[in-house]
Each structure stands twice: as structure tokens, then as C-alpha cells.
Write a structure and sequence with these properties.
By secondary structure, the chain is of the alpha/beta class. The protein contains six helices and 16 strands. The protein has two domains: 93 residues, Elongation Factor Tu (Ef-tu), domain 3, CATH 2.40.30; 116 residues, Rossmann fold (3-Layer(aba) Sandwich). The protein is 21% helix and 34% strand. Strand 12, helix 6 and strand 13 form a beta-alpha-beta unit. The longest helix has 14 residues. The two termini are 32 Å apart. The mean pLDDT is 95. Bound molecules: flavin-adenine dinucleotide (FAD) and FE2/S2 (inorganic) cluster. FE2/S2 (inorganic) cluster binds next to loops.
């Protein structure tokens, strides 16, 4: 699928916890073609027509029903408006956009690290890796227990409980997810089965710190970078990322980047 502008109809829109919501949409074109790590640029038809689209990762998809899921957090007027979309509401989305996660061919063991709503673009990757026979460990970090909204879904996807951290210590390890990353890297090394690949998405300080630890351990690491996006298709340069290879566009050169090229 190239860059198509397709219609999408809300099937369900559920409040999960605090600012976190899960929206299910009927959008067969995206459900059939999305690759893990890619995103859609979604219109906000109930706001002013001049309002720019908003980028969202696909949390899950079902090719049989043609449904997709978007896990979203309210941060401003656009995402707040989305909370009011009822089943039957019609929007449009451009997709599937961007570079997907690129897992080295020989990967046998992978580590996925998601902070907050940053866990969203890792779920399809987790499913793909498990289907390919890769042994996957997942680390999730959140502010508090209720915000670990993906925990069960990740358990289903990888067949193991994710390791969790919360800032307030209400579930799992108290503190930042980076402590768990360090422990997982050490344990894998000590067991003689080091990770071949790691994918990280979340707040930028987490991505910077976690990818640093992962690369220091000699593991190939990719990150999913979020930038404010205007066009979403490579034309406006509003989403520039500094890399060792020069300035890149997060929308079409990313959003997935090899951690080693990112200038944080
Ligand atoms: C590739 C990609 C995938 C994304 N996937 C998801 C997802 O799965 N779930 C989810 O909840 N969010 C995701 N986002 C972020 C989401 O697009 C923004 O939160 C949303 O556009 C904010 O719209 P708004 O109108 O509510 O906020 P605005 O009023 O536009 O902004 C409110 C605040 O959020 C900040 N902000 C807005 N957009 C971004 C952005 N793209 N990156 C960083 N900060 C931003 C603004 O600087 C401002 O401080 C993704 C972003 C990108 C680039
Ligand atoms: S959003 Fe326009 S170039 Fe990336």
C-alpha cells in the first residue's frame, strides 16, 4: 500500500485510565498493510477544517475484521476532541507512513522497552517477532499501576509477563524502566543468551538512556522518535531529527531510527 487517504469508522472508543484511551476503527486498508512501527496521519473532522492531521501508531490490527486499534493519550485539543468520537463517527487517515522496525535477520532474542504511551508501536512488533520464533522480553514503564494499560496485551503477545516499573512504586520496580533494562541486559549476558536486537519507544530521556545502555552492551538498537508533524509525508520539514548523517525527516526517514545515528 502506498500513501492512501482512506476513510476510517470508529467501532469503539474506551477510556482506560487517566489520560489514556483505546480507539478501535474499521479501516481495512490500514489493517491489511500496516507494518510494525509505521503510523497513520489522522484527520480531526469535528474540529476546524484547517486543523492539521495528527500522527498515531497502530497498537493492534485484525486483518480478518479490518479493524485497527489506536492507544492514545490526551495531551491537547486534538486528542481531547478524539475522546468524544462515538461508534459510527467517520474520519480519514493517510497511511501507512514511515520506516518500520527493521530487525536483523539472525535475531533469536529481542528486548522491547516501552515508556508510557510509547508502548503503543511495540505491540505489532512483539507479535511479529513471536510469530518468527524470536524469544521476546518486554519492559514497560509508567507513572503508576493503572497506567500500565498494555500489560495484559503484551503478556498475551509474548507469552510472558512483561517486567514493569512505576515511578510511584505501585506496581513492579519503583523508579525508571532503565534499571530493568540494565538488569535484563546483564541477565541475558550472564545466561550466555544475549539479546540480538532491542526496540525502544517512550519519553525522549528514557529512549536516550535506555538506548545508551543497550548499545554499550553491544546490542543493535532502534528507537521510534516522535516529532510534531504538519504534512506527515515528507514535504514540509517540520519534523526534523538531527542525526550523524545530517538532518532527517521523522515522518518518512523515520519514525524508526537506528539509535546509533541519533544526535540526542
Ligand atoms: C510517529 C508518531 C506516532 C505517534 N503515536 C502516538 C500514539 O500511538 N499514541 C499517542 O497518544 N500519541 C502518539 N503520537 C503523539 C500524538 O501525535 C500527539 O500527542 C498528538 O498529535 C497531539 O495532538 P493534540 O492536538 O492533542 O495536541 P497539541 O495541542 O497539538 O499539542 C499538545 C502538546 O503535545 C505536544 N505534541 C504534540 N504533538 C506531538 C508530537 N508528535 N510529538 C511530541 N510532542 C507533541 C505539543 O508540543 C504540546 O506540548 C505519535 C506521534 C508521532 C510523530
Ligand atoms: S511532517 Fe512534513 S516533512 Fe515530516
Amino acid at each position: 500500500m502506498g500513501l492512501e487517504d482512506t476513510s476510517a469508522r470508529v467501532v469503539a472508543n474506551k477510556h482506560l485510565f487517566g489520560p489514556l484511551y483505546l480507539m478501535e476503527l474499521d479501516c481495512p486498508a490500514v489493517a491489511a498493510n500496516i507494518m510494525p512501527g509505521q503510523f497513520v496521519h489522522m484527520a480531526l473532522p469535528d474540529r476546524d477544517a484547517s486543523v492539521l492531521r495528527r500522527p498515531f501508531s497502530i497498537f493492534d490490527r485484525d486483518e480478518d475484521t479490518g479493524h485497527i486499534e489506536i492507544l492514545y493519550q490526551t495531551v491537547g485539543a486534538g486528542t481531547q476532541a478524539m475522546t468524544g468520537w462515538q461508534p459510527g463517527f467517520e474520519t480519514r487517515m493517510i497511511g501507512c507512513i514511515g520506516r518500520p522496525w527493521e530487525v536483523p535477520f539472525s535475531t533469536k532474542r529481542a528486548l522491547l522497552v516501552g515508556g508510557g504511551v510509547g508502548a503503543a508501536p511495540l505491540n505489532l512488533l512483539c507479535q511479529q517477532l513471536v510469530d518468527e520464533g524470536v524469544d521476546v522480553d518486554v519492559i514497560l514503564g509508567a507513572q503508576t499501576e493503572g497506567a500500565l494499560v498494555c500489560r495484559k496485551r503484551y503478556e498475551e503477545a509474548c507469552g510472558k509477563e512483561p517486567r514493569c516499573s512505576t515511578d510511584d512504586g505501585s506496581f513492579g520496580r519503583e523508579g525508571f524502566a532503565t534499571v530493568l533494562v540494565e538488569e535484563a541486559l546483564d541477565a541475558a549476558q550472564a545466561a550466555g543468551t544475549p539479546y540480538d536486537y532491542a526496540a525502544v519507544c517512550g519519553p525522549e530521556p528514557l529512549m536516550r538512556a535506555a538506548s545508551g545502555l543497550i548499545m554499550d552492551a553491544g546490542v543493535a538498537c532502534q528507537v521510534s522518535l516522535e516529532r510534531r508533524m504538519a504534512c506527515g509525508v515528507g514535504a514540509c520539514l517540520s519534523c526534523v531529527v538531527e542525526t550523524v548523517d545530517g538532518r532527517k525527516r521523522a515522518c518518512v526517514d523515520g519514525p524508526i531510527f537506528d539509535a546509533e545515528v541519533v544526535v540526542w
